[in-house]
Amino acid sequence: MSLTWEEPTLEEDSLLCYRVYRATASIDGNPDDHIDDRIAELEASGGGPPAYTDTDVINGTQYFYRVTAETGETGEGTVSCGGAEAEESSFSNEATATPGPVSLTIEAPELTGGRTSSAFDAKMPIDVVVNGANVPPDEAVQLRYRQGGETSFTAVPMNQEGGEFVASIPDTAVTAKGVEFVVTTRNNQGDEVRTPADGIASIRVETDALSVTQPGGMNP
């Protein structure tokens, strides 16, 4: 859950930090009444729009957020966030959000019933593209692939491009045995999320017929 807000305009005092408050009911009154709802204290870096990402949330639960700013006169001595000389502002406007479940959807290669309807050429890399919804920003999305008939997977991280995650199955793994793959990540509770949700995606591979020498030097 990502929050952004505008930096306040100050005439004399210096901006020291921000405090973020979160609750499962509307946050009213004064900040002193909601100390238990305070979830973060952020330094005011001034390097861009202030922002905070809340990863400790449960899907389907509605959350309410407010932000305050701490200021202080820094001309005389050192004033720190939370110090006796600092002053906390009143609450910002309230924001509310309900996180949805983490989901992964395979966009490419195109699958029907968990299998590709058309064959891919052997010894050519295959791009895998997955649409990810509500994936936590600190969680990796992994492509796990193997040749048909093998028992173990090779895992590679997928690169995020907007709302999509992209990785390639290398040409060395694309053989006449076919390729199997699954894509995984985790939600905020640490539970694995995968696609396909059940089973393994299968890619059909075609290759030119090869002349194979049988034992004893005889051709088939």
TL;DR?
With 220 residues, the chain is mostly beta strands. The chain is built from no helices and 20 strands. The protein is elongated and about 80 Å long.
Explain what the structure shows.
This protein is mostly beta strands and about 220 residues long. The protein has two domains: about 1-95, Immunoglobulin-like (Sandwich); about 105-205, Immunoglobulin-like, CATH 2.60.40.10. About 0% of the residues lie in helices and about 40% in strands. The protein has no helices and 20 strands. The protein has strands at about 1-5, 15-25, 40-45, 50-55, 65-70, 85-90, 95, 105-110, 110, 115, 120, 125-135, 140-145, 155, 160, 165-170, 180-185, 190-195, 200-205, 205. Strands 2, 3, 5, 6 and 7 form a five-stranded antiparallel sheet that branches. Strands 13, 14, 17, 18 and 19 form a five-stranded antiparallel sheet that branches. A four-stranded antiparallel sheet has the order 8-12-16-15, with no helix packed on it. It is elongated and about 80 Å long. The protein starts with a strand and ends in a 14-residue tail after the last strand. Mean pLDDT is about 85; it is low at about 210-220.
What attributes characterize this protein structure?
0% helix; 5-stranded antiparallel β-sheet; disordered C terminus; 2 domains; mainly beta; 220 residues; Immunoglobulin-like
Number of domains: 2
Mean of residue pLDDT values: 87
Structural class: mainly beta
Which CATH architecture of the largest domain would you pick? Sandwich
What is the CATH superfamily label of the largest domain?
Immunoglobulins
- In whole angstroms, the N-to-C terminal distance is 62 Å
Radius of gyration: 27 Å
> Which spans have pLDDT < 50 for at least 5 consecutive residues?
210-220
Number of helices: 0
Helix and strand string, N-terminal first? EEEEEEEEEEEEEEEEEEEE
**CATH fold label of the largest domain:** Immunoglobulin-like
β-strand number: 20
Strand content: 35-45%
The largest sheet, given as strand count, sense and whether it forms a barrel, is: 5 strands, antiparallel
Instruction: Give the CATH level 1 class of the largest domain.
Output: Mainly Beta
What is the molecular shape? elongated
